[in-house]
Amino acid sequence: MRIGIDLGGTKIEALALGADGQERSRMRVATPRYEYTETLDTIARLVRTLETEAGSPATVGVGIPGTIMRPSGLVKNANSTWLIGQPLERDLSAALGREVRCENDANCLALSEATDGSGAGHGVVFAVILGTGCGGGLAIEGRVHEGRHGVAGEWGHNSLPWPQIDEVPGPACYCGKTGCIETWISGTALGNDYERQTGTPLSGKEVAEAANRGDPQAAAAMHRLEDRIARSFASLVNVIDPDVIVVGGGLSRVGSIYSNVPPLLERYGFGGGIHTPIVPARHGDSSGVRGAAWLWPKES
After folding, report:
1. Does the bond joining 171 to the residue before it have cis omega, within 30 degrees of 0?
2. Are both 174 and 263 inside the same structural domain?
3. Do residue 127 and residue 224 come from a single domain?
4. Measured between alpha carbons, how far is 31 from 142 in angstroms, rounded to an integer?
């Protein structure tokens, strides 16, 4: 059996998978925000509960909203700030008395979808999270590719490609720079863009719903979003040229992304003729926790 943990900023989800990859049980509890020791205790308690229910020990993988620096083992770039600088993987391994593997949550999405999701059968899978923020993860031949500094796939903190005059210098990003892709193509960014143009505050979800109802201002915001996504994806293709781009997060439910972005991607891609499939994550919101479970290869 394998257990995956999705350590989020507001909730911790735990999932037990059988050897066949089928779900056995699932639990969800509130994250003890700003309490590192209690976070460790909560994860350990969830693992032990699932193991007791199943009657067997399990491998454990944890998806986190940040990166484990190798070889120091310390967490960086986590929006759950109480994890930053902590040896989370090492401490969880000690708490559970076995090796625990931690990985960035977008990488877990990529791994899940490469294993038995929308990217299954593809060698190079790039997974994008378009939600409150914008993250990315890369799986190659069914394994996570972290890169030398653990930041492979973090293309959301590159600049928006081929910016127009009114897109320079771009919104301020929490990373300290301006004009990052994350500030243009996340759900938060969609709402902010609409408010800049209309003066009316709406969430990204509300903008998408208004566009579906025929609101012209919301439809214009969606068209700008789709164009920015296409430019951002074109930069991915130019560098990585993945076999498939899998989209997760709240905006993955917006159908126009899959109909309107591909022809724009072909236009922006180097030399034209770009036909990279853009598909929604098969496992939806469960992909992150499933990917954490799959941090242990199938033979484990």
Report:
1. no
2. yes
3. yes
4. 30
Query: What is the pLDDT confidence band of residue 148, given thresholds at 50, 70 and 90?
Result: confident
How far apart CA 194 and CA 22 sit, in angstroms, is 41
C-beta atoms surrounding 223 within 10 Å: 14
Strand runs (DSSP E) across the chain, as ranges?
A: 2-7, 11-17, 23-30, 59-64, 67-68, 75-76, 100-104, 124-130, 134-140, 143-144, 244-248, 278-280
CA 19 to chain centre: 25
Say yes or no: 194 and 247 in one domain: yes
Nearest in space to 246 (alpha carbons), one of 145, 236, 238, 297? 236
How many other β-carbons are positioned within 10 Å of the β-carbon of residue 127? 33
Q: How far apart are CA 72 and CA 214, in angstroms?
A: 52
At 82, the amino acid letter reads W
Residue range 268-272: average pLDDT? Answer: 89
- What six digits make up the tokens of 140? 């190659």
- Whether 90 and 191 map to the same domain: the answer is no
Task: State in Å, rounded, how far the first CA of the chain is from the last one.
Answer: 9
Q: For residue range 178-233, what is the model confidence (pLDDT) as tens digits?
A: 999 999 999 999 999 999 999 999 999 999 999 999 999 999 999 999 999 999 99
User: Partners of 13 in the beta sheet?
Assistant: 6, 28
The structure's pTM equals 0.88
